[in-house]
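Design review, sub-item: ligand-bound model
Attendees: FS, YL, KQ
YL presented the inputs for the pyridoxal-5'-phosphate complex:
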Amino acid sequence: MIPFSPPRIDDRTLQAVEEALRSGWITTGPRTKEFEKRLAAYCGVPKVIALNSWTNACELVLRWFGVGPGDEVILPAYTYCATANIVMHVGAKPILVDILDDFTMDPAALRKAMTPNTKCILPVDIGGLPCDMAAIMRVAEEARARFRAANSEQRALGRPLVLSDAAHSFGARYQGKAIGSQADITGFSFHAVKNLTTAEGGALAFNLPESFDVEALYKLFNTMSLHGQSKDALAKTQPGAWRYDVALPGWKCNMTDLQAAIGLVELERFDSETTPRRKEICERYSLAFQSDARFDLPLFKDDDRESCYHLYMLRITKATEAQRDAIITAIARREVSVNVHFIPLPLLSFYKGQGYGMKDHPNTYRHYSRAGPPACCRLPSCPVDLDQTCRTGGRGVSPSGEVNARCCPANTPPFSWGRGHRCIGGP
Ligand SMILES: Cc1ncc(COP(=O)(O)O)c(C=O)c1O
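KQ shared the predicted structure:
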């Protein structure tokens, strides 16, 4: 089986983790601090804090900015549930907007959704392709005049906060710069399937206006991530420095040195090995699919943006949702893990139950599911054996003849792929 996105765990990873274990520092310590410094240098920002997930890191941001009941946070309908869940956690209302054909937030839809209650904009770099951050920052700036600041942080910014969901896009570039230095704050995920992994993990890159004291902000987020304690374990080991205080009832979401040890190894080989390899895999897929009208290829690069090649978001033209699912099953039978990223939020029980619907997000649904418009399926773009992936994936997805989907449900209607290709429904 070609797995979905296995992590790379080799001797370098094992040695780095073993060294961390043997050092005695297995919670937040020198490796985490070093990882943060290197991430900040990579992203071109003054400060990065490493935490235990994107979810907890970005929830801290909403809490810090004072986002809560009565406030609105605008995000795309097409994203992973974490983007909306953190808004629910703080008691604010997620406002969903539609996407463009490249899966990123539509700035025009964002502008229409802005109200005086908008406290935060949460664009998502789906699949690793950056959003049009210049357009999104313009919309945030336009909101200054009617922004209702409710605390000192909101007064200092004077407009809605732009918190970028860059869970997929570490290493991507926007206008020649690494992702991290475009939004006010950028949240990364280092979950096991991400391009840069620490097993689980996340980080925040701070890029707020100069009126914010970034050193103080870094300290505050550290405190918030450790129950509001004024000192972390490392600081308390300094001679005579055992005394601490609790300034606020904080949370617990610090990164450990075991995670940072993996991250340091991964960061060191990110530009030289990881990204070139993912790019090579994505380009190989595109070469196989590009001259075939049955497929709509993902965008990886344009004048302003270059993806970090996290997902290969292939859309199958003219397939219904059921046919798309049958194709995925057929590919799985051929031992390739394929997935759909993502089921739009209004189609998930919880958000449906909150009254969200798909009718306001036609492009989101079009790209997720349907005939005529393309259906989306994600191919593995992890550094597995490339030839095996293309050979096996090729048999399932881009056959030179008929796609024999014997695993299609019995009631799946026959599906013509055009140019003589047919998917035969039924067992
Ligand atoms: C778009 C998006 N945002 C946020 C997250 C949450 O990241 P984490 O698992 O690090 O909390 C994910 C996770 O896959 C994601 O895909």
